[in-house]
C-alpha cells in the first residue's frame, strides 16, 4: 500500500473512531438532569435573595419554585440517581428558611452552586481530551500495526524483476559452466509441476529441461524467490519458487546423489518435500502470505 493510501486510510479511520470516541465521551460525561437541577436551584436562590431584599413581588413564585425543586429531588430518588451536591444545597436552603439566615448566607450558597456548575462544565471538556487521545492511539495502532499487518497478509508480492535487478548487481549473468566451483548447487521448486530443480553444472548440461536456467543470476533468482516477498519466476508453464521450502528434507540430498551417479531425473520420484504442504490445485503466482502460510505443516 502506497504512503498516500496509507495516510488516507488512517485519516478515514481517525474520523470514524474520533466521532465514536467523542460521542461516547459526550454520553458518559453529559448529564442533562444535572444541568436542569442547576438551573432550577439557581432560580430558587435568586428568589430567596429577592425575598430577603424585600424585592419579591409575588410570594407564590417562590412557593412554586420550591415545589419544582422538591419534585425534582423526589424524581431523583425514584431514579436512584441522587446528586449529592445539589441535594445538600437544597437542604441548606431549607435550613436557611427555618433559621432565618441573612442575605450573606444565601450568597454563600450561591457561590457553592457556581462551584458545582463550574465543575460540571469542566467535565464537559473531557470529551475533547477523549477525542484527542483516542484518535492518537488509534492512529498509531493503524499506522504501525494494523496497516502493516494488512500489507503483509494481503498485498501482492513485489515483481521478481526487482529482485533480479538486485541479484545482478552482485552476481553476473554467466553460464553455470563458467562457475569456478564444481559443487555449485541452486535448489528451486516448480509449483505447477510439483518437482524440484537441482541446478548444478551437471544437470544444466545433461538435462535439456534445465537448460533455460543456464545463467548464474537466473539460477540464483529461482532458488531464492520466496512468495512472501516476490512473485514466483515464470518460465513457460513452470512457476519457480525458492527451494528452501523443501530444503529441510533429506530427499534433496538423495535426489542430488541420484543425479550425480547418473540416474535420469525423470525416473526419480520425490517422496518428501520437507515442510511444504502442496495441494492438488495450482498455486497462484501472486499468492499472499496468509494463503502461503496455510500450506506450511
List the helices and strands and how they pair.
Layout: H1 3-29, H2 32-53, H3 59-78, H4 84-99, H5 103-124, H6 126-154, H7 160-167, E1 186-190, E2 195-199, H8 201-206, H9 216-224, E3 233-235, E4 238-242, H10 250-260, H11 289-293
Antiparallel strand pairs: 1-2, 1-4, 3-4
Helix pairs in contact: 1-6, 2-3, 2-4, 2-5, 4-5, 7-9
Keywords: Coiled coil, Membrane, Transmembrane, Transmembrane helix
InterPro entries: Acyl_Trfase/lysoPLipase
Transmembrane segments: 6-25, 128-147
Structure keywords:
Cytosolic phospholipase A2 catalytic domain; rod-shaped; 4 strands; 11 helices; 297 residues; alpha+beta
Total beta strands: 4
* Relative helix content: 55-70%
- Under the CATH scheme, the architecture of the largest domain is 3-Layer(aba) Sandwich
Alpha-carbon distance between the termini? 29 Å
Radius of gyration computed on alpha carbons? 40 Å
Strand percent estimate:
5-15%
CATH topology value of the largest domain: Cytosolic phospholipase A2 catalytic domain
Amino acid at each position: 500500500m502506497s504512503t498516500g493510501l496509507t495516510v488516507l486510510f488512517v485519516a478515514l479511520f481517525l474520523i470514524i473512531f474520533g466521532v465514536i470516541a467523542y460521542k461516547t465521551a459526550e454520553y458518559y460525561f453529559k448529564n442533562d438532569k444535572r444541568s436542569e437541577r442547576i438551573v432550577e436551584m439557581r432560580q430558587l436562590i435568586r428568589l430567596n435573595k429577592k425575598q430577603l431584599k424585600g424585592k419579591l413581588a409575588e410570594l407564590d413564585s417562590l412557593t412554586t419554585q420550591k415545589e419544582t425543586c422538591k419534585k425534582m429531588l423526589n424524581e431523583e430518588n425514584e431514579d436512584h440517581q441522587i446528586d449529592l451536591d445539589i441535594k445538600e444545597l437544597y437542604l441548606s436552603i431549607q435550613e436557611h428558611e427555618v433559621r432565618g439566615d441573612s442575605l450573606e448566607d444565601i450568597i454563600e450558597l450561591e457561590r457553592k452552586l457556581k462551584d458545582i456548575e463550574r465543575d460540571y462544565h469542566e467535565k464537559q471538556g473531557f470529551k475533547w481530551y477523549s477525542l484527542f487521545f483516542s484518535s492518537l492511539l488509534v492512529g498509531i495502532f493503524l499506522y504501525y500495526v494494523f496497516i502493516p499487518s494488512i500489507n503483509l497478509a494481503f498485498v501482492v508480492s513485489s515483481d521478481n524483476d526487482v529482485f533480479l535487478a538486485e541479484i545482478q548487481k552482485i552476481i553476473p549473468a554467466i553460464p553455470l559452466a563458467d562457475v569456478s566451483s564444481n559443487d555449485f548447487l541452486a535448489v528451486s521448486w516448480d509449483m505447477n509441476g510439483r518437482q524440484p530443480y537441482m541446478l548444478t553444472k551437471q544437470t544444466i548440461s545433461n538435462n535439456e529441461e534445465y537448460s533455460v536456467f543456464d545463467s548464474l543470476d537466473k539460477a540464483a533468482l529461482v532458488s531464492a524467490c520466496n512468495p512472501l516477498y516476490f512473485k514466483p519466476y515464470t518460465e513457460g508453464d513452470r512457476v519457480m519458487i525458492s527451494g528452501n521450502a523443501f530444503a529441510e528434507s533429506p530427499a534433496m540430498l538423495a535426489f542430488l546423489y541420484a543425479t550425480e551417479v547418473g540416474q535420469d531425473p525423470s525416473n526419480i520420484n520425490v517422496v518428501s518435500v520437507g515442510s511444504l504442504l502442496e495441494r492438488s490445485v495450482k498455486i497462484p503466482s501472486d499468492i499472499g502470505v496468509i494463503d502461503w502460510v496455510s500450506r506450511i505443516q
